[in-house]
Amino acid sequence: EFKKLLQDIVPKDLSDCVRFGVMVETTEALKNIKEIAPLCDCLCYGTNDLTEQITGLSRSIWDYTQWMQERGYEGQSPFEVLVPKVAQPVFKSMNEARTVNPKIIINMCGHQTGGHHISSVDEAFAMNVDQITLPPFSENINRTKLALARYEARKLLAPELANSRSVSHHA
Fold it and tell me: What integer pLDDT is reported at residue 29 of this predicted model?
């Protein structure tokens, strides 16, 4: 319905520039992605809200060092590092979205994929996201460029690994 409405109001010469997308920020959206994805041109996975919902932790508290160590994760907070407890259902949802809509554009945003911790940027590239939304800080952009270069190098050296769409586990 909404796509039809967009077609009616967007001038024909701009129709290639307008896309309909949905923010995936709840566990309910993750569960219903097969119904959502066919209606969209793009999805953006919001890792901050998803981390809060999946882990039950509040992002108003930043230091979760003990929680991270008890689970064998790097970093001081799951809001800094994309942890497997969050990455796995997000990755599953992305695969389901691509199954029902192979042309869908997938974006990730949030502190974890914003370049603060390079392993999380690596993780996002390993999940074959199409885009990453970054805050406008040069150190984040530089870390992300480094992660992309590392990913591209791995793809050249071992293409079967780069295209496997697997989620690595941080130990």
Answer: 97
